[in-house]
Records
---
Amino acid sequence: MTAGTAAVTSETTREPNQPAARPSARAMVNMLLSAGYRRIEASNLAGLAVGLGPVASGWSILEIERLRFLQHLDASGKLPA
C-alpha cells in the first residue's frame, strides 16, 4: 500500500444508514469456542449479540439463525401479521 491511501473496507463501501453485516451465528460460536469458551457460554454470547437472553442449555446455531431471519423480516415490514 502506498502512503496516503486507505484500505477499502465494508464500512467505507456500505450504503448510508444501513447496519454493518454481522457474522453468522456459526462463525460467532466457532470464534468464541476457539477463544476458550464452553459451548453453552459461546452460544449464549452469540445469542446476546443478536438480542436473545441467555438460556440454561445455550442456543443452537439453527435457533439463532432462524430468530435473526425473523428479526430481519420484522424490521423490513415483511413479517405477516
---
Amino acid sequence: MGQDTPSHERSAKERGLHARGNTDPTLASYLSSLLYLLAVPGFILLAYGGYWTGIWDYGSIVPVFAGLLITTVVTVFAIMHVFTGR
C-alpha cells in the first residue's frame, strides 16, 4: 500500500534516514549491509594476519575466526537490544 499512496518528493537523505514504509532504506539497513559485506573477509584477514605475524599458531586460525564471529553477533544483538528497548 505504501507505493500506492501519493506523497511529496523527498531528498535522498530524508529517504535514507527517515524511512516511512517497509520499502525505504534506513541508516540501520545500510550499516547492516556494510557489516554483512565486510565482516567475514575482515575476520579472515585478522585470523590469518595473526598467524602471519606470529601471534598464534596455524591451528588457532579457525578458533580465532569463530571467536570474532560469535563476538560480533553477540555485540550486534546487544546494541540492537539497547537501541530498540526490547
